[in-house]
Design goal:
By secondary structure, the protein is mainly alpha-helical. The protein is built from 17 helices and no strands. The protein has one domain: MFS general substrate transporter like domains (Growth Hormone, Chain: A).
């Protein structure tokens, strides 16, 4: 029996990986800078609570496009050229970076501009995530898909580590230059995606009307309890315990470490995630995947509580590092379960549903954190979120025993056949 190739030995996956890395470096640099500029502009006329609410509004404005466009973006990822869709979304983000650079260079940046760009970035991510998420499994053999997911996560988390640090470093010296760096990175991502060759994939079986196909995707998610449980676990845990939106508040008004300290705080969770993803890219997890995912989410909640209580920069960084490592542990398991439990014709629509929950837990979580911080204070908001994440783990282990009982990534073949849409099964029998 031939040994399965390493994902990085496959040209198409190498190009995909490099494109994701460049794109994530640019994205997370921009996201940090948008939050920093929003909070500082707001603080010129608002108190801490009201300024924190503006951070929440930024998160909400990025989430709403994903909420309304998810059914369409998932259908687009399954019906159209996934690489071309990904390239179009990268080009849109490049244009947003150019606009931000121009307004920053002229000294004309204000909240309406930042809010408008947040909406366009939300639109780009609504189509980018399903297209590239569904493309990845087509680039490697199924046997090495968990390794490929870990490597893809490294590009994502490396962007989260280096992107904010790079953005903060350049912004301190040349604010507009920080956005121009993102422009260059997006351009490199476009070039990498352009080198990906023809990728085979399955046609959508069953109903051919676009609306019916979108409904099939939603129905599949709700019928497959493994997929539904994995998606919603992340949704509610990170929705409650996410604290990234409040990092500018902690950097300026609680830890008093300024923009440079903000860069360290923003890089800490991604650093923990990179270490975890790098380990799994060489030593993929094989046993007791469900219980380990639940334990990782609980640890994520504990780390959030520790961050909320900390008044020391090193301790805060350590808590964020542990939280990022725990989050990556659960992400690795969740994405592997979702991809391997989903047939290829459904992957775009299921990836869109997964992206919606990820965005809900991130962008909507940022909105929740910002608004809650305005009501009860940032420290209490973070601690309450950590407690809530632990409660979610306890509830999901009871409501979704499939997660607790999952021992490996591979679903039984009979279960996979039974989870296809009804029309697909009828076609197979006819």
């Amino acid at each position: 029996m031939d040994r399965a190739p390493h994902p990085l030995s496959i040209h198409n996956f190498r190009a995909f990986w490099a494109a994701r890395l460049m794109m994530n470096l640019a994205q997370y640099s921009m996201m940090l800078l948008i939050g920093w500029q929003t909070y500082n502009i707001a603080r010129e006329t608002m108190d801490t609570g009201a300024a924190a609410a503006q951070l929440g509004l930024i998160g909400l404005l990025q989430f709403l496009p994903l909420f309304f466009l998810t059914p369409v973006s998932g259908w687009v990822a399954d019906r159209m050229n996934r690489r071309a869709v990904g390239m179009a979304t990268v080009a849109l983000q490049l244009a947003c970076a150019l606009v931000l650079a121009g307004f920053t260079w002229r000294g004309a940046m204000d909240l309406p501009v930042l809010f408008t760009i947040a909406v366009f970035l939300g639109v780009a991510r609504a189509f980018n995530g399903p297209a590239l998420g569904a493309l990845a499994p087509n680039l490697v053999p199924p046997a090495v898909l968990p390794n490929a997911i870990a490597l893809s996560s490294i590009s994502w988390q490396a962007g989260m580590v280096a992107g904010p640090a790079l953005g903060a470093l350049v912004y301190a010296r040349a604010p507009a230059g920080a956005y121009l760096v993102s422009v260059g990175l997006f351009a490199l991502a476009l070039l990498c995606l352009a080198t990906i060759g023809k990728v085979p994939r399955s046609a959508i079986p069953g109903a051919q009307h676009p609306i019916a196909q979108m409904v099939d995707g939603v129905r599949y998610v709700f019928r497959n309890r493994m997929v539904l449980g994995a998606i919603t676990l992340d949704l509610f845990a990170v929705l409650l315990a996410g604290s990234t939106a409040l990092l500018p508040v902690f950097a300026r008004d609680i830890l008093h470490v300024g923009a440079q300290g903000l860069g360290w705080l923003a890089a800490a969770p991604a650093s923990g995630a990179v270490v975890t993803a790098l380990y799994f890219s060489f030593r993929p997890l094989k046993t007791n995947v469900g219980p380990k995912m639940l334990g990782a989410v609980a640890l994520f909640g504990v780390a959030a509580i520790g961050f909320g209580l900390s008044r020391s920069l090193p301790l805060s960084i350590a808590c964020l590092f542990v939280g990022g490592a725990a989050d990556m542990f659960s992400v690795y398991i969740r994405q592997s379960l979702i991809q391997l439990h989903t047939p290829d014709p459904m992957r775009g629509r299921v990836s869109a549903a997964s992206l919606l929950t990820i965005s809900a837990s991130n962008e909507l979580g940022e909105a929740e954190s910002g608004f809650l911080a305005a009501l009860i204070g940032p420290v209490a908001a973070v601690i309450a979120g950590g407690v809530g994440a632990i409660a979610v783990v306890l509830l999901w282990s009871r409501w979704f025993p499939e997660l607790r009982r999952a021992r490996t990534f591979d679903p039984p073949e009979a279960a996979r056949r039974s989870e296809l849409p009804e029309q697909t099964m009828q076609e197979k029998l006819s």
